[in-house]
Fold this sequence. Notes:
Layout: H1 2-10, H2 21-26, H3 35-57, H4 73-93, H5 100-120, H6 132-155, H7 168-194, H8 196-225
Helix pairs in contact: 3-4, 4-5, 4-6, 5-6, 6-7, 7-8
Amino acid sequence: MNSILREILDWAExxxxxxxxxxxxxxxxxxxxxxxxxAYVLIALIINxxxxxxxxxxxxxxxxxxxxxxxxxxxxxxxxxxxxxxFSYFFILLGQRFMHRxxxxxxxxxLLLAAVNFIFFENFFDRWMFSNxxxxxEAAILLFxxxxxxxxxxxxxRSTALVKQPGFWIVTGLSFFVAAxxxxxxxxxxLTAEDLKFxxxxxxxxxxAYVLLCICIAINFKKQND
Length: 226
């Protein structure tokens, strides 16, 4: 039983994305603000399948240290950039007036800081560790987007029930995911150096939070279909 649960958790960056997929495919006419989330689910499914396959099968398939596909860290970095850009676009398309200029500027600031980081400090294709700085910065910006979403609803829009607000379930799932993952991303390289087993175990928290994110995305798209 433990081995089955372990395998489920090991693939928990892939199969949860299949949960919202039927609802996304079923609905051909989506509100504009959901298009970035639709794109994210499809792109993330491909990227996460690649990261997990490389991690699980690099040794059985004969990849050795130094081979390009020996490490999947570059895929985590790519995923982080794509996730930030698509979810940022989602928040912008929601059309909330609160801090609208800041929300539009943040993706450009993120790309600028990411470029500086990889030009001067880190290697985008590092074989040993994905970029803690990149993923932590992404999580912090997405958490800001989530907080301003709730602040806007509290201050500006009290006429509609909270659960019926556009994007509510997506933002709720994202809030939980980035809040749970921020410190994992920030300190993961330290954890792997000090206690590899604990680092592997704590990544399960990230995976469980990701499952919740995908469930919330599915709920949002299902309610859109109803």
